[in-house]
Amino acid sequence: MFREMRRKRQALSPEECAAVLRRGASGVLALDGDGGYPYAVPISYVCAGGKLYFHCAVTGHKLDAIARNPKASFCVVDQDRVVPEEYTTYFRSVIAFGRMRVLTEPEEKRAAAETLARRFAPGADERAHSREIDRYWNALCMLELTVEHLTGKAAKELIPPSGD
What we know:
By secondary structure, this protein is of the alpha+beta class. It has 4 helices and 7 strands. The longest helix is centred in the last third of the chain and has 15 residues, at 106-120.
């Protein structure tokens, strides 16, 4: 179902892919948009328990696209350093493929929102997180991406030489 990477030597291991997702703070979520056009939107996220969580408004393009087709991909660029003298970039990125779900149960919605709050406001205490979540609760929608396939790639210059 998913294509095999052409340049296998540049593939990141599952552990390296997971590390990229843990380090990242934002990426590009790609959905089945209106009129057959892809809809790709930059968005912040948190990775927890093998899933990715996002927040959004309770109405809008993302939710319409997910209702139409829950399949999605999410790309995180971990490094992208331009090397002009070599006419290239030294990059490392990961793409997660999976299915999106709107969290409708209040307990799971709150748990995901708290995980996101801890990620983006690590210095605040739980009471502060709770107050902020309560403040926006009615306008807050939480999304979950269950990862079905994860792939990552790095520039050949970032791959350690093999011992072959």
